[in-house]
Each structure stands twice: as C-alpha cells, then as structure tokens.
Predict the structure.
Amino acid sequence: MAFAPDRRANESPVVSALRRALRHARRCSWGVLALVLAGVLVPAPASAHPFGAPQQIKVAGEGEHGVRVRWLVGGADDLTLLGISLGVLPQDRVLLDGAVSYEASDAETLAGAPKFAKYLTERIIVTQDGRPCEGKASVADDLAADGAEVRFTCPEPVSTVTVTARMLTDLHEAYRTLARGPEGQKAVYDANHESADWTVGDGTDDCSPASTRTVAAVSSRSSALQLSVVGGVLLAVVVAGAFWHRRRGRKA
C-alpha cells in the first residue's frame, strides 16, 4: 500500500509557523467575534451619552467687575444622567440596556436641587490674574431649553479673565463644550482642555487661545480612529471565520 508523501516534511519554518497561526486563528475567531460584538453592541449599564450634541457656554462681561457664563446642555438625557450622579434622581432611570428613561420633570427636579447649583459653581470657575472670582448660580425655569447661569464678581475691573469649564466631564471624559464670547471669540472645552482666556472688556476681535482652536479637529480624528480600529477588528474576525468555514467545507 503506497502512502502519499507528507508535503509538510519539506516546509520551511516560515510556512509552518503561518500554518500554525492559521489553525490558532480558526479556533479563536468565534470567541473573539463574540467578545468584540459584546463590547461594541452592549452598552454599559450606566454609561453617559457624550457623543451627541455638544454642550454650549456663552461668556460675557457684566458691568465693571462682572462676568456671566451661561451653560446649555447638549441633550435632555444628559440632565437625567447628571441628576442620577448627583443623587437627585433615582438609579432605576437607567434601563437594563443602558438607555436613559428621560422624563420632562427631570429638568425641573434638577433645576431646583441645591446640589445642582453647587455643581455649577464647582465645575464653572472664573479667575482674574490667578485670583478667583466669586460665583453665584441661577437656573432658568426651563433648564432643558434655557440652561443655567453663573454670575461672577471679580476683585478688579474686568478685562481678560480665565474661564474653566468642566461640565459633565466627571460623567465621561468625552463630553465637549462649545464656547463663544464677545467679538466672535470661540473655544472648545474638553477633559484635556479645561481652561481658556477670554477678553470681555475691551472688544478684542479674537482672543481664543491657539490650544483650543484645534481641539475639535483632534477630537474628530480620535473618534474616527476609534471607529476604524473597531471596524478593522470586526473585518479581520469575519474574514478569519469565513476562511475557517471554507476550509471546513472542503474537508467535508
């Protein structure tokens, strides 16, 4: 009885290594696919929603010593998440699939909570030459539509001040805030860019710092990179699975 020659006996070490790697990939492909899909498709039970409409703030001078910072939320469900984080709203408002059950009364409940007023003055700060300006929060009757405001009184007549904004970045570092001020000044705040200088007294056309002008582009590239990585992993897993099925069909 003749035996067919074993072709693998003359294989180079590189080909043998590739063959072993393919066998390992076939065994692992479906497990990896399950893990990837679970991470991509199943949200965390209490995850925030930072990838929707961004927050906004408007910076303005008010009198000789005053600065006014108005804040508007990006999405109404962010108010619910903030209320849960502050203990103003119950934890059961987050559903099992991670979605948030928003109700119109959430904004009213949060607006009337002293914890929210304290949160505003802790997360929005104005300093003048390194010295803090005293802030007092006020909340609109319709928080979801009209937002909230912190009015600051500074020790000296106001010209240039530093505004720090960290709203919602304690819930998720991906939250961003689009800011604008007098004479067309603009800035973008995020977890890595929390402060910017603003001219509120002399009408300078553009005082937004260079470091904040590029934040939006950097954030967009970061999001695109994350999506491309996830897409590449999924494609690799699908190709490996198809290869495994094809080889299995040939053997059958």
Summary: Confidence is low (pLDDT under 50) at residues 32-46, 202-230. The longest strand covers residues 55-62. Strands lie at 55-62, 66-72, 124-128, 131-132, 134-139, 148-153, 160-165, 177-180, 186-189, 195-199.
